[in-house]
Amino acid sequence: MLKYIPATDRHHAAPVSWLSSYFLFSFADYYDPNNMHFGPLRVFNDDSIAPNSGFPQHPHSEMEIVTIVLDGEVTHEDTMGNKTTIPKGEVQRMTAGTGLAHSEFNRSDKPLHIYQLWFLPNQKGLAPSYEQKDLDLLDSKNELMPIVSGQKVLEDVVYMNSNSTIYWANLKEDKEIEFKTFPIRNTFIYVKEGTIYVNGTELGPNDQARMTDEHVVQIRAQKDAQFILIDLPAAEANY
């Protein structure tokens, strides 16, 4: 079963002048008891941050936090002692575990565009940890490129403590991708740009598809497209 969610159904938040954020799930001032999570995917925020601004230090715990930089660069500092810059095309993962605090700033004179995703971890009480990797994800061509995963058999990915895998795809017009899955798994798709057909359903920029009880996900680009696909466990016991 495929649930199509148009871009217009996202919750838009602009709590301060420098931030424009679209929430795909309940977050902060947006609460919908029917849209709390999709499997272990708890938060997906599509954030634009103005130059020379950002989030001051704030705490997290018991969450796997993934940041994907689409434009600009993030300056990150945390209570683990990490002080890093995450440029366009790189991916960061923080295991908040028993607790940490961090700040995220756009110190440049250019706008910053990121996706930030939070996953419920597969176990609680983990020690906080950090990983950052340049994956050249924005240069991939006509394939589902794994970028973050809890599957240790995958190489050259950022590891997270979740039985989930995040894929990125740049799909040229008329090209097709087939993703094989299982009824015990869920599949989530969010389109950055272009137009794709997912099992016959059209998705445009910022549209979502949430799929359950599928065996195969067939994706064809009507126009050159960039999108994210997330493979997720359906049952909480498998998170």
TrEMBL record:
CDD domains named in the record: cupin_Yhhw_N (cd02910)
* Limits of the Pirin N-terminal domain: 16-118
| Residue ranges annotated for the Quercetin 2,3-dioxygenase C-terminal cupin domain, each copy included | 155-232
Instruction: State one Pfam family annotation.
Output: Pirin
Which domain of life does the protein's organism represent?
Bacteria
Record family assignment: Belongs to the pirin family.
Record-given protein name: Pirin family protein
Which organism does this record belong to? Hymenobacter nitidus
Its lineage opens with:
Bacteria, Pseudomonadati, Bacteroidota, Cytophagia, Cytophagales
